[in-house]
Design goal:
The complex is a heterodimer of chains A (626) and B (500). With 626 residues, chain A is α/β, with parallel strands linked by helices. Chain A has helices at residues 11-27, 31-45, 61-69, 119-122, 144-147, 164-172, 191-203, 220-233, 245-254, 257-263, 265-311, 316-334, 339-375, 379-423, 456-481, 486-496, 506-574, 578-603, 608-614, 621-625; strands at residues 49-55, 86-90, 95-102, 108-113, 132-141, 150-154, 178-184, 207-212, 240-242. In chain A, helix 8 (220-233) links the parallel strand 8 and strand 9. Chain B has a nine-stranded mixed beta sheet with strand order 4-3-7-2-8-1-9-10-11, with helices on both faces. A two-stranded antiparallel ribbon of chain B has the order 5-6. In chain B, helix 1 packs antiparallel against helix 2 (28-41), helix 1 (8-23) runs antiparallel to helix 16 and helix 15 (359-377) runs antiparallel to helix 16 (383-396). The chains are: A alpha/beta (626), B alpha/beta (500).
Chain lengths: 626, 500
């Protein structure tokens, strides 16, 4: 995503750099810094790259996933579609686990299922059990592509059964590293598809359009051209890649390399393993670079201070004073009254009220539309349709609200981060934490990360993932689909069915039915508002907590480093003997050289602009404390 | 079904229209509407083809016509509501939203009609009228509509306005709804149409659903239609379609059109392809690109192959070859077999049973709904009585009750055994409306046997209707069937005495 091309870092190099930095940190007992480095090395070792495959009903999503892993895992059918999102990832032995929500049980329940009977579990033909709602199936496969850390998420078709799918599909996109949007070559893009693409683009930086089934449609080049025009007209700068899963399978079966090339699947794979993997590795590399530089800065601060006073004991007062000023600033940052804390809490309050306003506004609009609908018909005849329409419209409104508030939350995180550069009037080493460049890009490896010290991006995204992914996919929609409000009206409807035979006061009865229907609708809308609002608030509280912990940790690190720097400076000033002083200086210089070398290696991972901006001139302690 | 059968419904409709025309004789605007409906009453049935964009509406229309008349293209093509009527000389008239109708030049290229809009844009036109000397049009007016989930909202809304105008009666008497799958927006649209029709009288609209491009669901495999037919059989019982359409027919539209217009040169090409060794042929059919670009002197020329793929699709080519292997020797036989397998024959039968045999009732229904609406919106002195007549007719006409019953039979839980339900559908005209079709007898059965069968049915259903333990819905349904039986007896005796 950065303009300057960076050479892709080697995974081993990253690991070595992290290990060296950790070794340097542990010599000074900075375990807090060591921890954060360890987390990163885990991520480097075991990256997860999620590729979400989306598209309308029956566009060949499952077939594409199968073609990508060269195995027939996801069930394919002429008519029945996928109903449960399926995550295909690496595992040493093929296996599958089904996660479901069970009535009255907290949390998701898992159960192992035979991998060859996925059809019975993930398709629309799956037999449903009362009170058990399948949420997701994890499939583990030994496969070369998957072994590189790539996982595919096969989703139910948008528009397949109900719009509720749109919301749940959307909720998977913010945590995706890449999105494949499938549309088959039988027709050009339709309005809903373009609308979905636009939404997807705001949630994930890497969206690729795949034109599927090119083996079947002779006009696929015309369609591809038309789609490119539509994309351009809609202002969407996205690549469009033709692919045919069927040709690929046939090519593999008959060992026909030329046909395989025509199928477009090798190209897709190459893009994934090449571009995407490189991009993710580059991003990880940048995270590593930033982290190592920051650790080095933390470690160097005491050394530099001590060196400064050792070299010129006369200045020790000035150095300590300057450091104390910085410490006061760091102190201020870590206090509850810090400005960033205020921004966060004000911003959170704003977020909540804006989110609620937005939600209420969208739902009210749905309500009004529904009342107009009711005025136009006899609700007892079309009640079921109204119910379905309403549930869909609410799901859509909630999805829109979700996209909107997600962006607001990201924006808030950036605002808070800004503070760390504004507030620290004295230039502090870890200022580059506040560097928002790339900070908010979704970064892979969320699943594998335990809680603890994380850099801002993962923390924020993880918080958001917990908050939104959960609410939309598992909680809210299922409770809405139960539509508790249908019942009071159904009782009324049963009573009113006889209305047909009495023609006299038909008009009065109709009016009565309409007003009853409106009451029921209002009840549903209120209920949805209450439930969604509450969920959103609860989840946002977690986002807020994550942000607060993260920034508080940062302030804490600063305080600790500064305290050590002050202690070192004082210690430096105290040392009396010339010989001891010289020894100390050379020890410290040696350590500093190691750190400088580390910083240099780390800086190579960052884009030139970012590196210069935050570079601390090596060996010149004045710049740090002056 | 050429005879425009006079029926009680038609007479009532005509009388009502005449009375209404007299009642509003001093109000030119209303009068114009009513007179238009008076003309429409004696026209052939208007059947609209409706569906999402690229659902294959124009292709199916062409297949029904048996010639490639409506323009088709890989990209979104039909942008204006286009009417196809019968007439002795070809003519194309564009009717702008504002202004007077204009004749368009009639171009045909390779047998296809080219609509040259001249200066007009698709947006500025309300509709295009095509008059064409094609026999099927003598019985049905076919209306091609822009796709419902079109890339451009204004095109989608145009179809919506045509079918369910906010302030009037639908322009179509019946709808063939094209589904590409059980897509949400498709079903939503079906419900919309239904709600609109149902507004005045609560009756279901006449509509049948066609699972178009059925072959593509199977990815071009030879058994595509088999699995799709099986799926369709299952879909027929899907509650989502209930009360919305009475029949669901899978049709491989492309194949249907291509095989009704199969050329001798294409037949020869299929024969050549059939002679290839199996492996070679399969490799050839791996993808459309391969099929066209492969080089081999035993093959038909690339141009011919390109046209084969374009016209028949991969599935069509596979099927044609498979069918040839059963020993077919000439083009007409191949054509007939492919048409049968494409589902087009079944669609024709369904159109006959559900639309053409109900011609009079559907026409009357459209007309009376229109009168009802006019009367309701413009109450004048003396019109109250007419309004009540119209309302009563819409609510009580037996034909509509039958239609309602058939279309709701799946959703209302009737306390009847499956074979009784089948008999119910048959007797109320679900498989055809002639007395003998209703009784499930061959047409050559003698009158006495038919009479006896009708009486047996009448007794059986009367008994069911009066069973003391029966629930209300079932009782009502049984009474409708009883009334149908009486109608059968009535028609049988009239026919008998007319011949004696």
């Amino acid at each position: 995503m950065t303009a300057t091309p960076l050479s892709v870092p080697e995974r081993a190099d990253l690991l070595r750099l992290l290990a060296d930095a950790a070794a340097a940190a542990s010599t000074t007992d900075r375990d807090d810094l060591v921890d954060s480095l360890k987390q990163l090395s885990q991520r480097v070792e075991d990256p997860t790259i999620r590729v979400v495959v989306v598209g309308q009903f029956k566009q060949g999503k499952s077939a594409l996933v199968n073609a990508m892993v060269d195995q027939s895992v996801c069930p394919i059918d002429d008519v029945i579609g996928t109903a449960v999102p399926t995550v295909v990832q690496y595992g040493e032995t093929p296996s599958a686990v089904m996660w479901s929500e069970v009535d009255g049980v907290e949390g998701l329940q898992s159960r192992s299922i035979p991998i060859d009977s996925l059809r019975q579990h993930v398709t629309e033909a799956a037999e449903s059990q009362d009170g058990v709602r399948p949420v997701r199936v994890d499939v583990y496969l030994p496969n070369q592509l998957l072994a590189q850390g790539i996982s595919f998420i096969d989703t139910p078709g948008v528009g397949g059964v109900t719009k509720a799918h749109v919301a749940s599909t959307l909720s998977m996109i913010p945590v995706a590293d890449a999105v494949f949007m499938l549309s088959d070559a039988s027709q050009e893009y339709t309005q809903p598809e373009l609308a979905f693409l636009k939404q997807a683009m705001t949630l994930c930086p890497t969206v690729s359009c795949v034109l599927s089934k090119t083996d079947l449609h002779v006009q696929w080049r015309t369609i591809a051209e038309a789609n490119r025009e539509h994309l351009a007209a809609a202002g969407l700068d996205l690549p469009l890649m033709p692919a045919s899963a069927a040709s690929h399978l046939r090519a593999v079966a008959t060992n026909d390399a030329a046909l395989d090339r025509e199928s477009g699947i090798p190209q897709l794979k190459a893009d994934l393993t090449g571009d995407l993997l490189d991009r993710v590795l580059t991003e990880t590399g940048q995270a590593v670079g930033r982290q190592v530089i920051s650790v080095v800065d933390h470690l160097r601060l005491p050394i530099d201070s001590e060196l400064a006073t050792l070299r010129d004991p006369g200045r020790s007062g000035a150095v300590v004073k300057s450091l104390k000023e910085s410490q006061a600033a760091a102190q201020a940052l870590s206090q509850k009254s810090a400005k960033w804390q205020q921004t966060l809490s004000d911003g959170s309050n704003d977020w909540i009220s804006d989110m609620e306003y937005d939600l209420r506004d969208r739902l009210r609009r749905v309500g009004r539309e529904c009342e107009m609908l009711i005025d136009d018909c006899d609700p007892s005849e079309v009640w079921e349709e109204i119910g379905a329409w309403l549930a869909d419209s609410i799901a859509q409104a909630v999805a829109d609200n979700f996209v909107w508030s997600h962006q607001r939350a990201e924006w808030l995180a950036a605002r808070v981060a800004d503070h760390f550069s504004v507030e620290g009037a004295v230039e502090l080493p870890s200022l580059r934490f506040s560097d928002t460049e790339g900070v908010l890009n979704p970064i892979a490896g969320l699943e594998a990360l335990p809680s603890g010290h994380m850099s801002l991006p993962q923390k924020v995204i993880l918080g958001m993932r917990n908050s939104y992914g959960g609410i939309l996919m598992f909680g809210l929609l299922t409770s809405l689909s139960g539509m508790p409000l249908v019942n009071p009206f159904s009782i009324g409807a049963g009573m009113l069915v006889g209305g047909f035979s009495y023609r006299q006061d038909a008009a009065a009865r109709l009016e009565r039915r309409r007003s009853m229907a409106k009451v029921a609708v209002r009840r549903l809308i209120d209920e949805a508002m209450f439930q969604v609002g509450k969920e959103q608030r609860d989840r946002f509280r977690e986002v807020k907590k994550t942000l607060r912990d993260h920034f508080a940790d940062m302030a804490e690190h600063m305080k600790r480093s500064l305290q050590e720097a002050i202690d070192s400076a004082k210690a430096g000033a105290k040392s009396k003997t010339e010989g001891g002083r010289t020894d100390r200086i050379s020890t410290l210089q040696a350590r500093e050289a190691t750190l400088a070398e580390l910083a240099e290696r780390a800086r190579r991972l960052l884009p030139p602009g970012a590196a210069n901006e935050s570079a601390v001139p090596a060996g010149d302690s004045e710049a740090v404390v002056a | 079904m050429n005879d425009i059968r006079e029926s009680a419904a038609m007479t009532t409709a005509r009388d009502l229209l005449d009375l209404a025309i007299r009642a509003y004789r001093r109000e030119p605007e209303i009068l114009e509407t009513l007179q238009a409906h008076r003309v429409r009453l004696d026209e052939p049935l208007r059947v609209a083809l409706v569906g999402s964009v690229k659902a294959g509406k124009s292709t199916l229309l062409n297949a029904l016509l048996g010639e490639h008349l409506a323009p088709t293209d890989a990209r979104e093509c039909t942008r204006v509501v286009t009417w196809y009527r019968h007439g002795s000389t070809p003519q194309v008239v564009a009717k702008p939203v504002n202004g007077s109708p204009e004749n368009l030049p009639v171009h045909r290229q390779h047998g296809r009609l080219e609509l040259d809009l001249g200066d007009a844009t698709a947006d500025s036109l309300e509709r295009i009228d095509v008059t064409w000397p094609a026999d099927p049009l003598a019985e049905l007016i076919l209306v091609d509509t822009p796709g419902t989930v079109s890339i451009s909202e204004s095109i989608s809304s145009r179809t919506q306005k045509f079918l369910a105008p906010p302030d009037g009666v639908s322009e179509a008497d019946a709808v063939i709804y094209m589904l590409r799958s059980l897509h949400l927006s498709d079903v939503e649209f079906l419900h919309d149409v239904k709600n609109h029709h149902g507004r005045a009288d609560g009756s279901a609209p006449r509509s049948i659903a066609v699972l178009s491009r059925a072959d593509e669901l199977g990815g071009g495999r030879l058994d595509a239609m088999v699995s799709v037919n099986a799926a369709a059989a299952k879909l027929r019982t899907d509650p989502a379609l209930d009360g919305v359409c009475e029949a669901l027919v899978p049709v491989a539209g492309l194949l249907a059109l291509a095989s009704t217009t199969l050329r001798q040169s294409e037949f020869s090409a299929f024969v050549a392809l059939e002679k290839l060794p199996r492996d070679e042929r399969e490799a050839l059919l791996a993808s459309v690109d391969r099929f066209i670009t492969a080089e081999d002197e035993n093959l038909p020329s690339p141009r011919v192959r390109a046209s084969l793929v374009e016209r028949f699709g991969v599935y069509g080519i596979r099927l044609a070859i498979a069918v040839l292997r059963t020993g077919i020797k000439d083009a007409p036989t191949l054509s007939a077999e492919l048409v049968r397998r494409s589902g087009l024959d079944e669609l024709r039968r369904v159109i006959d049973v559900h639309f053409q045999q109900r011609h009079a009732e559907l026409k009357a229904h459209s007309a009376i709904s229109a009168v009802y609406r006019v009367l309701q919106d413009n109450p004048r002195e003396h019109t109250q009585e007419l309004l009540e007549d119209a309302e009563e007719f819409l609510a009580n006409a037996h034909a509509f009750r039958e239609m309602r019953l058939i279309s709701h039979v799946r959703s209302v839980k009737l306390a009847l055994a499956p074979e009784e339900l089948e008999e119910l559908i048959r007797l109320t005209g679900g498989n055809g409306t002639s007395p003998k079709q209703r009784l499930g007898l061959d047409e050559d059965v003698d009158d006495l046997t038919a009479h006896r069968a009708a009486y047996d049915a009448l007794w059986a259903w009367t008994e069911r209707a009066e069973h003391p333990l029966i629930d209300r819905d079932t009782a009502a349904a049984c009474r409708v069937v009883r009334r149908s039986c009486e109608g059968i007896l009535d028609e049988l005796s009239q026919a008998h005495f007319a011949t004696v």
